[in-house]
C-alpha cells in the first residue's frame, strides 16, 4: 500500500506545479509577424486579467482556441490565425486594423501581473504539502 501513496504524492506535486503555468511569451510577437502589425499586440488581446492558463477569455482568444491553438505551440497559433483570416473573423480583422479587441484597458501595461500570484501561492503550498507527505512516507518506509 505504500507505493500507491508515494505515486499519489508525486502526482499531486506535479499537478500543483503545472497549474502555475503562465501564458506563452512568444505569442504576441507571432501575432505581430503573422498579421504584419506595426506593434506587438498587448496580452489583453487574448487574456482577461493576469496572463495565465485559463484567462484566455476574450472573443479573439476564444476564436483562436476554437481553431486548436495550443499553449507553447507557435505552429498551432499560426494555423489558427490563418483560419480566422480566411473566415474574415471580425476580432482578428479589428486587431489587424489596429483596433483594440479587449475593451478600454487594452494592454499589459495596465498593471496586470504576468501570472496569477494567488494561484501560484496555493499551487506552491500544495506542492510543498505533497513533497512533505512523500518525505514522511519515505522516512516511515526506512524504519
Low-confidence stretches: 15-20, 102-124
Task: State Rg.
Answer: 20 Å
What integer is the average pLDDT? 73
Helix content: 55-70%
Amino- and carboxy-terminal Cα gap: 16 Å
Q: Could you give a short account of the major beta sheet?
A: none
Number of strands: 0
How much of the residues is beta strand, in percent? under 5%
The dominant shape is elongated
Structural class: mainly alpha
Total helical elements: 6
- The tally of structural domains comes to 2
What letter string, H or E per element, gives the SSE order?
HHHHHH
Describe the 3D structure:
The chain has helices spanning about 1-20, 25-35, 60-65, 75-85, 90-95, 115-140. It starts with a helix and ends with a helix. Helix content is about 55%, strand content about 0%. The chain has six helices and no strands. Residues about 15-20 and about 100-125 have low confidence and may be disordered. The longest helix has 26 residues, at about 115-140. The protein has about 140 residues and is an all-alpha fold. The radius of gyration is 20 Å and the shape is elongated. It has two domains: about 1-20 and about 115-143; about 20-115, no CATH class.
Amino acid at each position: 500500500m505504500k507505493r500507491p501513496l508515494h505515486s499519489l504524492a508525486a502526482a499531486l506535486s506535479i499537478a500543483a506545479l503545472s497549474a502555475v503555468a503562465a501564458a506563452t511569451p512568444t505569442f504576441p510577437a507571432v501575432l505581430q509577424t503573422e498579421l504584419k502589425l506595426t506593434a506587438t499586440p498587448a496580452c489583453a488581446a487574448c487574456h482577461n486579467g493576469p496572463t495565465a492558463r485559463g484567462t484566455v477569455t476574450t472573443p479573439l482568444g476564444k476564436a483562436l482556441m476554437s481553431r486548436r491553438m495550443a499553449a507553447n505551440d507557435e505552429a498551432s497559433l499560426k494555423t489558427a490565425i490563418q483560419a480566422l483570416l480566411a473566415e474574415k473573423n471580425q476580432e482578428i480583422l479589428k486587431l489587424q486594423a489596429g483596433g483594440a479587441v479587449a475593451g478600454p484597458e487594452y494592454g499589459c501595461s495596465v498593471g496586470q501581473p504576468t501570472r496569477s500570484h494567488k494561484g501560484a501561492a496555493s499551487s506552491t503550498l500544495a506542492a510543498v504539502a505533497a513533497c512533505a507527505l512523500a518525505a514522511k512516507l519515505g522516512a516511515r518506509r526506512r524504519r
